[in-house]
Amino acid sequence: MKSSKQGTKKNRSLGDHALTLHQRLYQALNLGIKSYDNRERKWRCTDVEIQRLALRSISAFVDCISPETSEHTIVKDSINDILVALEEILQSKNEAILRMAINVTMKLVDVLGNSILQYDVLKLVHPLSSLLSFPESHVVVSCSIALNQILSKLSLWRIKRQEEICKILKETNTVEHIVCGLLDFATGTRSFEYFHEMASLLTTILWRWPPFRYPVWSNGKLLEVLEALCVKPDSSVAVVLLPLYSALALCGTGAMKLLENGEALLLMMVRCMDCSQPDSIRIEAFKLAQGFVRSQQGCLKMMSLCCEPIVRAIISAMSGCRSGSGKVATYQMPLLVEACRLALITRWAGVHHMYFWKLEVHQILLELLLSNSYKFKTCQHFMSSKDLLATVREGLDSNHLLVIRPYIWDILGWLSIHCEETFNPGTHGCSLNVLISCASLVFVDAIRSGRQVAQSEISYASKHEPISRAFCMMIYSPCQYIATHAKNNMSEVLMPNEEDNLVYLLGTLKSTSDENKYRAFSNIRIALNLMGLAGYSGLSKYRSVIIKSDGLKILLTFIRWCLKNDVSMRRLSIAHHLHHTSNETICCCFDNEDWEGEDILLFFSLWVLAELIQSSKSARNLQEVTSGLVDHLMELESSEGHILINMLQQICGGTFSAGPRWYATYILSYFGCYGFPSKLGKRIGEALNKNELADLQLILANRESVRIHGIILWVRCPSLLPMGELPQNEKIGDDFADRQKIEKSKEFREIRLSTHVDHQVLWKLLEFIYTGYVEGVTDLLKQLKILSRRCNVHSLSHMLSGKRPKWDSAIACCDFTPALGPAGYYFSDVVLEAKATEIMNWTCSVCSQSVPHMHVHKIILWASCDYLRALFQSGMQDSHSQIIRVQVGWEALRKLVSWFYSDELPKPSSGCLWNNTDLEQQLLDVQPYIELCWLAEFWFLEDVQEDCLSIVASCLKSSRHLSVKVISVAARFSQWKIVEVAANCMAPLFPQLRDSGQLEALDEELVDIVRAAYVRFSQEGASDH
């Protein structure tokens, strides 16, 4: 320790008493701290009395530290030496010394506050973590408090330091010790204080380090203990449990696990949202609920258990924060914000929307928007439109609750877009009307102010994106009441010179898509301008202006620019109010993208284009609309007039987000094209044009007939099958009657159709049933609409209706996996048999075969695999066999059949589930994909081979040590692409693997491949890997 004689005048300002205490500290620490090689300093004294003297000196010196003196050189040097001493003394076996050391540590951490990050406090984390398994409760409690104080301040630390902390927590089995302690509490051997501090420490760890979540939420005994505590009404229990559950819910898989048997948890959460609870508890309850609704799956599960109580709690918090004057106190703002955050569950459709409207959410939103809302309670019925807008403007300008305004717009937008067509607010319509007036004013202001804002001003986007998006949802709401009032209000707000704004908005799109010009506008600005155009397009007057201003040509060029440049942008990059401190540590996220996903620019440009085309319905016929668009396309590029249709087909049949795909399909409907083209649909569609393997014949009244396949009809349009022949989804029995019924169902059958069914119309319906896509139905539209409705083909019926796509609708894709259920066995005509394994105990629900197998359908295999098609058509003995033996294991066969029926390979577990799986199990999970890669070569399944290679590469990237095992398996199957991927993943570990002898199990050829990959890795640099 440095001598106090080195202190400067600045240090002497500490005061004589502090300098005296420092001198004593200096002398005490010098008794135990030793230097090695003039660099490393360690405490090496085990004498209890010297340790006690040092701790007393530390305690006395820490008492004199204040925020003003903490930056002095003497204090900083002393703290560094104090940490050196505490690191070793905290490992003492003497309980009295331990208690003193822990108390001194707690005092030091408390005094230093955030300035502790200036020091190497990692020295304390290891010993404190190790003491969590100490038998004495009071020692553990004190350690928990000290460690929690340190870890709680780590949000400001560099990522590298946080990784070091994570490593220490793993080495000391910190989480395991905490979990054991919590289980001990359930036996009555530990105090509630012990439980409180240990649970709080666990919450802090789980909040910052995702790897520790799985061992907690997967511990069934611990969840039972926590669930038992949930039923206790004591608020002190809720204070502990709510943040702990919130931290666990940061893992998407963990959140769903908690909801599986979460009745007690949700009841406690709802109880804690009540207005009788302190605000701090209510806030934690709202935060926990937000964790459960990060995904639509979680939202629907939670709402199915306690929908109305949660909505009531949200409304209560949003309305209860206002005083008599209508203002919100500063201390109530955190509660209001969290309630508004939870109200964003309106983004998902569901019964909760009904409760929001029932509890007059529009009145609450209006009162939060307008600080002088009391003026409307008596006079809004008698105001003219002009006076109403003036009063609304005054209220908007005077309101100080700007922080929650983005949430208000989001809530209003989601409520509008998911609203039922026949919704009517009844006696409370005036409040909704005023709310719509507010939105129209702010939306138009956003459009106008955009022309004066600098490109780099991101605050503009975060302020105006929510209202721009929300107003588009209102003006295109399925609810006629909302849409009509939004259009009328916008018309009243707009100025006579709005055409200038339209020309400006179109100009930004034109400039952006012109590759010969410098891009003057960012993607964020373009996104907001597109929303502005979508708003204008809701009014017929401005749609015509856009069309006259070459709007169609500009939009088509812009869409092509988006596709060519693969432009991607998520809403989160614009809407900053959706950012949350927990976002950085969320793991195992389910798909919770907005409908437009990362294709915002493409989505809104398609939305505007759809409205412009839809408005052209006033033309004499669809051909006029089509030819007009083709004319524009011919001007755009002297190529085929079908460039638009090809472009839209590329979108709706591609990997874009659901929103753009739906709007591309919606636009295509004006060209007589309906549905979503897909690879699987195209394959299955080939079977319709051929009589191969057909087992049904549809006979029309004029004796024309169509040969089709029963299994495809049963999956996609069971209404065309006679009721008596429809199989049920039930387990097949073993009796003779069941077997006879099954065999009879497999015979070739004829079905006679009604006299009203036309051959052409039936054929178009069958095209959609087989492929999920149909075109050229312009002249048959009315008849096809009737037939699809009678046959209950709901997806096609909706598309034929000409209505806008319903927001958040899933893609109506081809999927024949229901045919693999018990009922599909009635149509099964072949068995795929996997390689038998000694350890597998196999039973089948529909037959007595003991070898792993699947009952499938020749027509699906015929359509999806050239090898099997050739086999079935060969006329050889194997072509008539009821069993096809596939030389892969059961898991590989199951995945292959899934691909045949859905065009998708099931993927192995990911996130926390994968990371907490041992290497042997990971190998078992990956090996089926290696087997499929091998089989795909012989069966000519290039797509399967590519998908398997991608999946294996992803698994190896997340678990590099798995590569050592995978490379041998891949070599055994001669899958050299996988061998190369595995070798590249092993390259950074090569020296470690070589020195540890793990490479000795590999063939010399494989070792050479890995060595070559390591050389490349060394030459290229680790940054590329």
Automatic annotation (TrEMBL):
InterPro entries (alphabetical): ARM-like, ARM-type_fold, ARM_At1g04390, At1g04390-like, BTB/POZ_dom, SKP1/BTB/POZ_sf
Name listed for the protein in its UniProt record: BTB domain-containing protein
Organism: Protea cynaroides
Domain BTB, first and last residues per copy: 828-909
Higher taxonomy: Eukaryota, Viridiplantae, Streptophyta, Embryophyta, Tracheophyta
Gene3D superfamilies xref list: Leucine-rich Repeat Variant, Potassium Channel Kv1.1, Chain A
Pathway in which the depicted protein is active: Protein modification; protein ubiquitination
Pfam families: ARM_6 (PF26522), BTB (PF00651)
Record PROSITE patterns: BTB
